[in-house]
Amino acid sequence: MNTLILSGSVSETSRSFLLCKAVEKQLIAKGEAITFIDAREIPMHTEHRHRTDEMKRLAEQVKQADNIIIGMGVHCYSVNDALKILLDTCFTGAIGKFFGILCAAGGERSYLSTMHLTQICMNEWRMIQMPRIVFATEKDFKENIITSTEVLERIELFSEEFHAIGRKLLA
Q1: Could you list the residue range(s) of the whole structural domain that residue 31 is in?
Q2: What is the pLDDT along the chain (171 residues), one digit of tens a residue?
Q3: Strands 141-142 and 145-146, bridge-based pairing
Q4: By the 8 A CB rule, do 113 and 83 touch?
């Protein structure tokens, strides 16, 4: 199974990146082939539908992936602008794919912010979402390390279920 993990935050201290890396480690241990994309390494233009070479490469990787995991930070109770640009310009090949969400937020009251990403993926590309998400807040991290045992347990459960459900959907 080929899984694309997109860390959609461009923050230098991205906590959603840490969640993505933790899930990547779990899935590699299960034998999955992982393509890891860090949005911080993709030059982007705000011009709608203008794609850089890196964005064209991401569009092809999305098309080739069996399933996708999207890491997001919360910005004004929604996805950040960089992730939205990548979704708009690179996800036409995501139609019908299985996806999961990893979310890092500043506070606990923004747990429903992932629903905007759900709406985009399900309505635009008819993607199939894993019902479970990983949601963490700044209190779950210390010095760029996930310190919450509860979040680490959720990452393990998310990875196990994403792997199992993804395999079943491909069968």
Answers
A1: 2-170
A2: 899 999 999 999 999 999 999 999 999 999 999 999 999 999 987 666 678 899 999 999 999 999 999 999 988 788 989 999 999 999 999 999 999 999 999 888 888 889 999 999 999 999 999 999 999 999 999 999 999 999 999 999 999 999 999 999 987
A3: antiparallel
A4: no
The answer to whether 110 touches 40, Cβ cutoff 8 Å, is no
> How many residues make up the chain in this entry?
171
Cα separation, 53 vs 73, whole angstroms: 25
Per DSSP, the three-state class of 157 is helix
CATH of the domain at 121: 3.40.50.360
Distance, in Å, from the CA atom of 121 to the CA atom of 144, rounded to the nearest integer, reads 29
Q: Which token pair is 119? A: 């709406």
62 close to 69: Cβ distance less than 8 angstroms: no
Six-digit token string for 121 = 């993926």
CA atoms in the 13 A half-sphere facing the CB of 6? 28
- Into how many domains does the chain fold? 1
